[in-house]
Design a protein that fits this description.
The chain is an alpha+beta fold and about 240 residues long. The chain is built from six helices and four strands, in the order H-H-E-H-H-E-E-H-E-H. The protein is rod-shaped, with a radius of gyration of 31 Å. The model has no long low-confidence stretch (mean pLDDT about 80).
Length: about 240
């Protein structure tokens, strides 16, 4: 009889435990995933704001420059602003920014003996230039990357002065990519906190299941097995 009671208890615990797991695992998974999405969205918004700033400074510098040489005062102001921003932001684990030149711009720079060659720094830059679409991701090293391409005749590159330089001097046609704005954010601290919080959520879920199973076992013993034992004793008498 004891073996049968144990078997009944085990089966009921297994069934109830499975049901609880089926119900709670999606909830825990959604909570962990939603925390990750919030982290990613926050990084994306921060990168977008930084790229907006870079785009504004860069466009104004390009419109104000008087010559294509690297030593143009407008370029010096642009480079100084970018360096200052990256240094200030980087000290607080913030955003690093850089410009990416399209192949035709690089060819022009090389043909004219210019030292400022700003090619793609990684695959994200390369894909953005090829696809003409914003690219972003979080790497395995907890680095958030975003690259925003610039297309001649569109958005910030729709000013006629853009075509007067890029089209006339570099043979870049409307609809072709000029370059891109790129941002990098170190999320190692935020990702570590997310992993720690996720582990806590998972542990809390497991403990909740264990607690509920313990209560169910106690209820089974009290409401089911105990009356059976009493009935058996009464029958034996």
């Amino acid at each position: 009889m004891g073996g049968n009671r144990l078997s009944v208890t085990a089966v009921m615990v297994l069934v109830v435990g499975t049901v609880l797991a089926v119900l709670l695992v999606p909830v825990v998974g959604y909570r962990v995933y939603s925390e990750y999405v919030q982290l990613s969205d926050k990084a994306a918004n921060e990168a977008q704001a930084a790229l907006d700033m870079l785009e504004s400074v860069h466009v104004n510098s390009m419109l104000e420059r008087r010559e294509t040489e690297d030593l143009d005062p407008a370029i010096n102001v642009l480079n100084g602003t970018m360096e200052l921003f990256s240094q200030t932001s980087g000290r607080h684990g913030g955003v690093s920014l850089w410009l990416v030149m399209a192949p035709k711009v690089i060819d022009f720079q090389k043909a004219n003996g210019q030292n400022e060659i700003e090619g793609p720094q990684d695959e994200i830059d390369e894909i953005a230039l090829e696809s003409k679409a914003v690219q972003s991701n979080i790497s395995d090293q907890s680095i958030f990357r975003m690259t925003r391409p610039v297309v001649l005749g569109e958005g910030s590159a729709s000013n006629p002065k853009c075509a007067s330089c890029h089209q006339a001097l570099m043979d870049i046609q409307p609809g072709e990519v000029i370059g891109a704005y790129a941002a990098r954010i170190d999320l190692s601290g935020a990702m570590a906190m997310w992993k720690q919080k996720s582990a806590f959520i998972i542990l809390a879920g497991a403990m909740l299941i264990a607690l509920m199973l313990g209560m169910i076992v106690a209820l089974i013993k009290w409401l089911v097995l105990k009356p059976i034992d009493e009935l058996v004793l009464a029958t034996d008498r």
